Amino acid sequence: MKRSQVAPFFLAIALVAAFTFAAYGIAGIRVVKELSLSPMVIGIVLGMLFGNTLLPYVLGSWELKGGFKFCSKTLLRTAIVFYGFRLTVGNVMEIGVPGIVIDIIVVTTVLLLGTWLGRRLGLDSDLAILTSSGSAICGAAAVLGTEPVVRAKPYQTAIAVTTVVLFGTIAMFLYPALYRAGVFDLNPTQMALYTGSTLHEVAHVVGAGNAMNDVVIANNAVITKMIRVILLAPFLIILGLILQRTRRGKPEFEGNAGGAWWRRFPWFAIGFLLVICFNSFDLLPHSAVGMINKLDNFALAMAMTALGIDADFRKFKEAGFRPFLLALILFGWLIGVGYLLAKYLAPALA
């Protein structure tokens, strides 16, 4: 990096951090908190507002691109690795075979259906993959993890995050209401599996589980959701290997990697798994792990904010309603298929 680029680089990072602090402040407002809107989601909104209004008028704004790219690429990959401190191998063992099998079926079918439907709807394959991964695995975190593997454009990431947050938030209020009304004919264990295997974000699962006023549902739903989060790593590895073969030689995919497969391989996914294994040994004090998770949340929020700054509103208009239609269909699939699996498959596997 040239000396003249150092100041703009750190200025851009400081700017992203400032917007992220603002996102945390907004997320702490009571009304926003009740909606379970995380600082990550608020950060990308603030970033998009700034990037599409004031940024073009900032003197030398093009010089800030290096800092924004650092936050949305390098910082993002690092944050995904440390996301593993939320999980342990014991989480998988606690929920047992029914939760593992149902999670695998849900994730696999949503990913396959989403990519297939994306082609039928005429969507860009990157956008279809991002939307499908967010719906299938863990919302915005999955979209962020998938973004560097497919080398998606910032506006595609922003659209995918918007869709999963929208339908995940609807589900967070819908599931408790239907459960209390008796529409979901499931016992607490089945409802926990259903909630954890089909809601988009971890925050949505926590919110819905607590709203049902049942400890079994609240605890087991989160554990079921954590297994879906673990599935993010193998998904990214498999996706990376598939793209190595299907997009080999394409300039937009190769980028500056020089064609070497090991430079394009999603190593951060391996790091994510290694951190989970390390965390399973419980070697660090819980206070230290808690601090790591807080810093990691902030890093993820910074990455989302930086992606928002680089997302062009005009691209949203060009994409139209189709990404939301795809997410809506996947949402319906999650509700229907998830219910059938929790109702009939879970007892058979127990």
TrEMBL record:
The species this protein was found in: Candidatus [Bacteroides] periocalifornicus
Name by which UniProt lists this protein: Uncharacterized protein
Phylogenetic lineage: Bacteria, Pseudomonadati, Bacteroidota
Subcellular location: Cell membrane
Family: Belongs to the UPF0324 family.
One GO CC annotation: plasma membrane
Keywords linked to the UniProt accession: Cell membrane, Membrane, Transmembrane, Transmembrane helix
Cross-referenced NCBIfam families: YeiH family putative sulfate export transporter
Topology of this chain in the membrane: Multi-pass membrane protein
Regions crossing the membrane: 38-58, 95-115, 127-146, 158-178, 226-245, 265-284, 324-342
Primary localization class, coarse: membrane
The keyword Transmembrane helix is annotated on this UniProt entry: yes
